[in-house]
Amino acid sequence: xxxxxxxxxxxxxxxxxxxxxxxxxxxxxxxxxxxxxxxxxxxxxxxxxxxxxxxxxxxxxxxxxxxxxxxxxxxxxxxxxxxxxxxxxxxxxxxxxxxxxxxxxxxxxxxxxxxxxxxxxxxxxxxxxxxxxxxxxxxxxxxxxxxxxxxxxxxxxxxxxxxxxxxxxxxxxxxxxxxxxxxxxxxxxxxxxxxxxxxxxxxxxxxxxxxxxxxxxxxxxxxxxxxxxxxxxxxxxxxxxxxxxxxxxxxxxxxxxxxxxxxxxxxxxxxxxxxxxxxxxxxxxxxxxxxxxxxxxxxxxxxxxxxxxxxxxxxxxxxxxxxxxxxxxxxxxxxxxxxxxxxxxxxx
Amino acid sequence: xxxxxxxxxxxxxxxxxxxxxxxxxxxxxxxxxxxxxxxxxxxxxxxxxxxxxxxxxxxxxxxxxxxxxxxxxxxxxxxxxxxxxxxxxxxxxxxxxxxxxxxxxxxxxxxxxxxxxxxxxxxxxxxxxxxxxxxxxxxxxxxxxxxxxxxxxxxxxxxxxxxxxxxxxxxxxxxxxxxxxxxxxxxxxxxxxxxxxxxxxxxxxxxxxxxxxxxxxxxxxxxxxxxxxxxxxxxxxxxxxxxxxxxxxxxxxxxxxxxxxxxxxxxxxxxxxxxxxxxxxxxxxxxxxxxxxxxxxxxxxxxxxxxxxxxxxxxxxxxxxxxxxxxxxxxxxxxxxxxxxxxxxxxxxxxxxxxxxxxxxxxxxxxxxxxxxxxxxxxxxxxxxxxxxxxxxxxxxxxxxxxxxxxxxxxxxxxxxxxxxxxxxxxxxxxxxxxxxxxxxxxxxxx
Lengths: 348, 447
Prior knowledge:
Helix content of chain A is 76%, strand content 1%. Chain B has one domain.
């Protein structure tokens, strides 16, 4: 049951990265691929119907963590106090930018919100990558099982650690490249005209950068957290995930080269999900790795709710999860086809 | 970090009060939009469609701000209240996680279809989108109220081996009797808010002599739904809610009424100032026996005063609790009177001509916001000094790893950010109201 909830939480988090990843990525490349107001309305129309639902995956993942591993939520979220509020404030500004930008027909108003939207999307991609880097590197848990992290220390990655060091920044850059590439591939699929052409060109280049940074981040991970790689040799599921990730990345290149844009987007989604799944598989059962003393590390078994509570939660989860998928299918079907800029006052 | 407790409490109070200004309107407005859209479908009248579209635009702006200010609420359970999350997460995690899965996905998937998708869907499809938003937002409300009800009156839990709570009976937890009554009371007050806002805009247009046809429909929907909700919010739901407080949070009832001495024939206090250090109520105006009757059903029932309880179980801010409760109850009564009067005049066809009542309706829209805020202050201050009533003290609920200065820093950050959001929100709503229930672009065409 604990393994199952670790899996469910990981799947929800991967769904968040894949889904919100494409609209964060579209935001990160918004000002590059769309130049005129008409074009910018096109990128916003492409993500407009989806971004809010995509962001719910973050809340739903947090909910899964809350119900299944309340001790990890309590210790982890309070330990990353500053970082969490930076993320929340950035999310707030970004949401306002998407919703408010096209309400007022004024060039300065729109330019300001376009800038906020792009900057917030870029920062969020880096923050989420750095968050993953922090989990892999570990946190300074004390004897009572709590920790607090400063924003940065000496960037060495050794104790005393900070939220930003060379490793977490590297993972943040990888996340930025991967999500921006993912967003560009999404826009290639969902838009046409100049935006589609520029997204196509940018997507290929960004995926190239992603592949290089992936190798770099993987090598760095071996150095920072050797246990992950010891686990890799013993876990066939992780090998399978890595295979899917490589195949997904290959599909992106083929899909873009041959004009099969949906195939490229599916490949990109598989790549992101599989990289996370491989990481989660190798990380298990660790949830909060202690940099201070390995004995203080919090495992899934130690942090989980009682078995009865987990079974009850599974009871409603198997009802709610398919419903969530159903809403997404309806929403994507109703908004199928290329996104076009709406008439003034009738859309994003 | 005991010093940090005050900042944690203030930050949560500020962010949740601010956040709730928006869902408080949108939950009730979702119901009114369903009614308006149903009228449009039934009558095939274009004016009803214009009315519906106008309120959907107002709904969209409010909903967007509600969403962005709602995200921090979920996370602050972890950032600021890690002690609570660790202790009660295995129980309250259920409702908070279900809210995401069952309510937020539904709302977020249909929001843009409701706001922007009328041309993409047919009219029935657009009506279904309105119903989906209504169901989603009311479900969301239930999960949050059920979480709060557990903190007010815990049910369905057991204490685990490590001393933290675990879920013992799912249905006893989800269908907590406190949750059912609190939900009814809360949702009705949300409908009252929406009704007052719809009436206020209608009254404004009539006084201005603009959009008279649409304004008449604002007032007919607003007064009809409003009068029903404004009565039900007082009786039976408000009355029953107070009886639950009397039964399960007896010291809170005493504090709400500023009552220190115990005894039968307890009076209800209309007005007066609690003087906690002297243990008495100064300058009271009372109705004898009414509190005994309202709380327990007979005039001779003994209503305990605060002195009957140990001071470490008293709510820690008795004055604010007392004033909040009296403001809520007083405004609830005033709003009921306004709505009954407006509905009678509307039904007899005289409302459009009675300018004084239109003035009252136009100016009255802040009252439900104040009453709802005061009501929630009553609930949350009355729960003190507990975070989970009788089980965990608020002082033990805060995050041990967060320093006072850190919490103050984020509180100040929220104040700044939310001030900017407030200015933007008022600007956008003002534009929509100035624009009015006409097709976008129509005014341009007219020149």
